[in-house]
Amino acid sequence: MEKKFIRCAVYTRKSCEDGLEQEFNSLDAQRLAGENFVASQIHENWRLVSKHYDDGGFSGGNMNRPALKELFEDIKAGLIDMVVVYKIDRLSRSLFDFSKIVELFDKYNVSFVSVTQSFNTSTSSGKLMLNILLSFAQYERELSSERIRDKFAASLKKGMWMGGVPPLGYACKDRKLIIDEKEAKIVKFIYDKFLQTESYLEIAGILNAAGYRTRPRNENTSGKKFEPKAILRILRNPYYKGCVVHKENVYPGEHEAIIEESVWNQVQEIFKKHEKPGQKEHKTTTPSFLKGLVYCGTCNVLMRKTCSNKRGLQYRYYTCSNHLRYKSCEASQHTIPAEIIEKRVVEEIVRILKSPEVVMGINRLAERRNDVAKADLMTAIKNLNDVWGYLYQAEQRKIIHMLINKIVMQENGVKIDLNLEGFDSLIMRLI
């Protein structure tokens, strides 16, 4: 009986792209070794598939590789019986990923072999050897990562620019930061103006009104308006005083400073002055029963509960989320005392409970529910009016969330979007 052919696929990988442009590169060498190994097993009916599975410039630390994905698809389609690699780490350098690969191979009855590492995964000793080899492969990968991180940190300690998008006011030339005079004028203006106004929100408005825009991402796009958050980043960035930063550590940089260190320090002192314990926002454990309902009428975003401590007393507020994220908010009041909003909403709820809308709702509900008398519904509403002021805040919050969809803080007052179905549910609970 003729033996069945074992279809063999050679998989090759190289972590970096250096040298791939050569006529005979690392991938070619791996493939040649794999093809020769398959040819040596021709007596076992091994046959090489014509398709190439080559990943040039892809790390073995993950499985996000096009040729490897294509290999998996062909395995699932039943086109491959054996995978040949030059070394196991060409397939994967991660124990976790390799376990997934082995699981896939077992599921589709596919074997694999390393040209330079002889082992048999059908025995317990072979599996142990495989795990040892993979452990060393993963160790080597992690060691390389540590070397890169250490080199990166050492370079920053020397003040070198390590790539990325240069801060506004700088350009990158020959892997060094140089001053862009046009943008540097904007940076100097921001620092000088902040010393006068102590408000980055006001500076953003001045720049935008004057027509200044941020640096375009590419030649096909235009710059955007300056957000207050961008101004804040510029005012906090030590690069402008000629330093570099690594993990909150500041080192003297090789690049020229745009802002004098004395000016930069004055700006930081202003920030410290505005961050005194009595003025800094704190998280509050006091419940805000309008949480999730209050929206800024200008930005149409949620207003979040905030808190500040002054002289031992805690004060609660609702603040526009855009303002908290240092984004533009054109409302005249970004922050409103919680008591003012909550009192206004409670008054509105009490008014609504006595209003014609509720009477209409009761009539509508009485028509739908033959088992409930209209008089009982009116009694339930009266009882709620009488006891509202004595309810716990949690109970008031529950009722308010039942009756209201949305509360919008507008410049000329408060707009409340009612939930009519909530009225029906509430009335039925009170009967």
Query: What fraction of the residues are assigned to beta strands by DSSP?
Result: 15-25%
Q: What is the CATH topology descriptor of the largest domain?
A: Rossmann fold
Give the count of helical stretches. Answer: 15
CATH level-4 homologous superfamily of the largest domain: Resolvase, N-terminal catalytic domain
- In round numbers, the mean pLDDT is 79
What is the N-to-C succession of helices and strands?
EHEEHEHHEHEEHHHEEHEEEHEHHHHEEH
**Helix coverage percent of residues?**
40-55%
Strand segment count: 15
Radius of gyration: 34 Å
CATH architectural type of the largest domain = 3-Layer(aba) Sandwich
Topology (SSEs and partners):
Layout lengths: L5 E9 L11 H15 L5 E3 L4 E4 L9 H11 L5 E4 L2 H4 L3 H13 L3 E4 L9 H34 L12 E4 L2 E4 L1 H17 L2 H10 L18 H9 L6 E4 L2 E4 L8 H13 L20 E3 L6 E8 L2 E8 H4 L10 E3 H16 L2 H13 L5 H14 L5 H11 E7 L2 E6 L1 H11 L1
Parallel strand pairs: 1-2, 1-3, 1-4, 4-5, 10-14
Antiparallel strand pairs: 6-7, 8-9, 11-12, 12-13, 14-15
Model description:
This protein is of the alpha/beta class. It has three domains: 6-144, 3-Layer(aba) Sandwich (Rossmann fold), CATH 3.40.50.1390; 170-273, Putative Large Serine Recombinase, Chain B, Domain 2 (Hect, E3 ligase catalytic domain fold), CATH 3.90.1750.20; 294-430, no CATH class. Helix content is 45%, strand content 17%. The chain has 15 helices and 15 strands. The chain has helices at residues 26-40, 66-76, 88-91, 95-107, 124-157, 181-197, 200-209, 228-236, 261-273, 321-324, 338-353, 356-368, 374-387, 393-403, 420-430; strands at residues 6-14, 46-48, 53-56, 82-85, 111-114, 170-173, 176-179, 243-246, 249-252, 294-296, 303-310, 313-320, 335-337, 404-410, 413-418. Strands 1, 2, 3, 4 and 5 form a five-stranded parallel beta sheet that branches. A three-stranded mixed beta sheet has the order 10-14-15. Strands 11-12-13 form a three-stranded antiparallel beta sheet. A hairpin with a 2-residue loop joins strand 8 (243-246) and strand 9. It starts with 5 loop residues before the first strand and ends with a helix.
